[in-house]
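Box 3.1 A note on notation
Throughout this textbook, protein chains are presented in two layers. The first layer is the amino acid sequence; the second is a token string describing backbone geometry. Keep the layers aligned when reading.
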Amino acid sequence: MGRRDLLLDIGTEELSHLEVVGALIRMHLKPLKTNREAAEADPLVTIAGGGGVGLFDSMGNAWTANYLKVTGELDVDLRSNIAAEARAKIVYERLIDHTDDPGSIDTVQFLMTREITHMKAFQAALDSMEKQPFSIGMLKPTPGIVDEYFNGSTGDGNEGDSGMRGPWTSSFGLHPVESQMNGGKGLSVGDINGKIDGEDRGKQDDAQKATTSAGDDAVGKRGKEKGKTSHRKAGKSSGQR
């Protein structure tokens, strides 16, 4: 319930940020209705929108629910929220660099600062779950190959770099493997096995499937087993006759 309260608190504040941004946009677009020079800067907004706030991005794409990214896994969604706040911080930072209006700068500075506040809160909520950094979902990755860093960029680069190495090739148990084209063994794809001991996987295979005919048994393992049983019984009955 505590993390739910966090999401409600931040969600409510974000709605207020929409009002702040909307008011700021209206103030900047107001001259479009009467000032011809301002209108010429963006005639589409002037003629089609009358200087009003439209739910479009800078390229004219309408806002859609595609902007909402929800997985249903709290830790995954918290990480996504942290990344979203970081992207918003960068956008506000660039907006500050492209305006000379003191009031707008102060407003955007406030919004930019609150993004960091939200990042801290989301990170604290994520830490409170006490999950390992790479423990995502319920199913385990395949051992061995999960720690293999594939060196897919070989040869000399434009800047003279060849076989560059960094912490991303050796941290968290990672180790580099070379392509078979370069004499290496490549990724251990032969070790992949979708069935891992101790995990109950593929439960959908045993579930009752949908049927395409009201007179047929359900299609699936259970349905097939029932069908075989009924056929055997029918055979015995006909043989007894």
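The longest strand covers residues 148-151. The helical segments are 2-29, 36-41, 43-49, 74-97, 102-128, 221-240.
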